[in-house]
Specification:
By secondary structure, the chain is of the alpha/beta class. It starts with a helix and ends with a strand. The protein has a six-stranded mixed sheet with strand order 4-3-5-6-7-8, with helices on both faces. The chain has a two-stranded antiparallel sheet with strand order 1-2. It is built from 17 helices and eight strands. It has three domains: about 110 residues, no CATH class; about 80 residues, Arc Repressor Mutant, subunit A (Orthogonal Bundle), CATH 1.10.10; about 150 residues, 3-Layer(aba) Sandwich (Rossmann fold). Strand 5, helix 13 and strand 6 form a beta-alpha-beta unit.
C-alpha cells in the first residue's frame, strides 16, 4: 500500500505487475519480490535512495507495530534465500521506539481492539447523512468505501497521524454507522497463474442449499465459500474476494436484490458476477434482478446442470449462454414455464 504514497512514479508499473504476474519474468524477479523491485527501480533511476529509505522504514515500522499488537508471533526463517545488495541503512533502535510509542498511544486511545490494517466502510449511509454536513458526507462516501486501510487514510488525510484519524472515525464505528472490514493483502506477483483456483461464494441462510451448492461447485473443481449471515456478507466477501457469487433471494434480514444493490456500490464488487437464486418465475423478478445489478437469475429448485452452466459462463469468457435475460423477457412462454423446469437468465 505504501508504493502509491512513497513511490508515486512507479505506482502504475507496480499495479501492472500485480495484474499480470507473468511480467515478473521480464524483470528477473525471484523470491524477495518487493525488495528486488526496489533494487531494480533504484538502478533504473525511477526512484531515489531517499524514497527507498522512507519506504523500507515505513514497512519495518508497520511490521513492528503489528508484532506489538499480536498475541502470538510465528517467525519463519529461510536461510536459503539470497538477498540482493543492501539498499539502505535504517536506525533500528529509533524505529522500534517509534513503533512501540505508537502502540502505547493506540492503547491509550482505546483502540486496541481495532486493526489499522482494516478499511473503514460506511454501512448505514442514510443515517450517517443525517449526522454530518453534506460536504463532509460526500467526502466520507468517497473515501470510506472499504478499499483503503486506516493506515493509508491516516497518511493521506492527517500526515501519518494514525491515532488522530482513527479517533475521528471511532465514534461512527462504535455506533454502527461505519464498519472496519478486513482487506486482503496483495498476493505475490511471483505466484504462477495456472495454480490459482477460482473461489465461488454462496450467501444463503439454508444449510441445505449451501451443501447442495458446495457439492456442485467442488465437483467442477472450484473452491467454495458458504455465508449464512447476510449482514456479515460484505465483510466476509471483502476478505475472501470470490470470483463468482450465488445469492439467495429470500433471507431473514435483507433480501437478495437489496444485498446485490449494496454490493454493487462497493468498488471491489462492481464487476463481480452475482447470481440470484429465486423460486419466483415472472417478469417482475426479471426486472428486479436487472435493476439490482445482478448478472444472472436461476430458478429453484436448483439443478446441477444449470449451476454448472452458470459457472462456466462467468468463469470462462469463451462460453456463451443461449438464453439471455433480454430474450427471455420478450418470451411469454418462458414466464409460463413450469417450475419443475428451472429457467436460466443472463443479464
Amino acid at each position: 500500500m505504501w508504493v502509491g504514497i512513497y513511490l508515486p512514479q512507479v505506482k502504475e508499473e507496480f499495479l501492472q505487475l500485480r495484474r499480470n504476474p507473468q511480467l515478473k519474468s521480464d524483470l528477473q524477479i525471484e523470491q524477495c519480490w518487493e525488495y528486488e523491485l526496489l533494487d531494480i527501480w533504484l538502478k533504473q533511476g525511477k526512484i531515489d535512495a531517499k524514497q527507498v529509505n522512507q519506504f523500507i522504514t515505513a514497512q519495518v515500522k508497520e511490521i513492528l507495530f503489528d508484532i506489538a499488537r499480536a498475541r502470538q508471533v510465528k517467525i519463519e526463517y529461510k536461510p536459503d534465500i539470497v538477498y540482493s545488495s543492501p539498499l539502505t541503512l535504517i536506525n533500528s533502535e529509533q524505529i522500534t521506539a517509534e513503533a512501540w510509542q505508537e502502540w502505547e498511544e493506540w492503547q491509550k486511545a482505546r483502540l486496541a481492539d481495532r486493526s489499522p490494517d482494516a478499511a473503514p466502510l460506511i454501512i448505514k449511509p442514510e443515517e450517517l447523512k443525517q449526522k454530518v454536513p453534506q460536504k463532509t458526507f460526500a467526502g466520507m462516501i468517497k473515501l470510506l468505501n472499504g478499499t483503503k486501510t486506516v493506515r493509508e487514510l491516516s497518511l493521506e488525510l492527517t500526515q501519518q497521524n494514525l491515532i488522530k484519524f482513527t479517533s475521528l472515525v471511532k465514534g461512527y464505528i462504535d455506533t454502527g454507522l461505519i464498519e472496519l472490514v478486513e482487506v486482503s493483502d496483495f498476493s505475490s506477483p511471483i505466484k504462477e497463474i495456472d495454480t490459482y483456483v477460482p473461489l465461488i461464494a454462496c450467501i444463503d441462510d439454508s444449510p441445505i442449499i449451501c451443501q447442495i451448492m458446495e457439492t456442485i461447485v467442488k465437483d467442477c473443481g472450484y473452491r467454495f465459500l458458504a455465508i449464512s449471515d447476510e449482514l456479515r456478507a460484505v465483510n466476509i466477501l471483502l476478505k475472501h474476494k470470490p470470483d463468482l457469487l450465488f445469492l439467495d433471494y429470500i433471507m431473514p434480514k435483507v433480501n437478495g436484490y437489496e444485498l446485490c444493490g449494496m454490493l454493487r456500490k462497493v468498488p471491489q464488487f462492481a464487476e463481480l458476477p452475482i447470481v440470484i437464486l429465486t423460486a419466483h418465475q415472472n417478469l417482475l423478478e426479471q426486472f428486479r434482478g436487472k435493476i439490482s445489478g445482478c448478472s444472472t437469475l436461476i430458478y429453484k429448485p436448483v439443478k446441477a446442470e444449470v449451476v454448472k452452466a452458470t459457472i462456466t459462463e462467468h468463469l470462462n469468457p469463451n462460453y456463451t449462454q443461449k438464453n439471455s435475460l433480454s430474450n427471455q423477457m420478450t418470451n411469454d412462454s418462458a414466464v409460463n414455464q413450469s417450475k419443475s423446469e428451472p429457467l436460466y437468465f443472463s443479464v
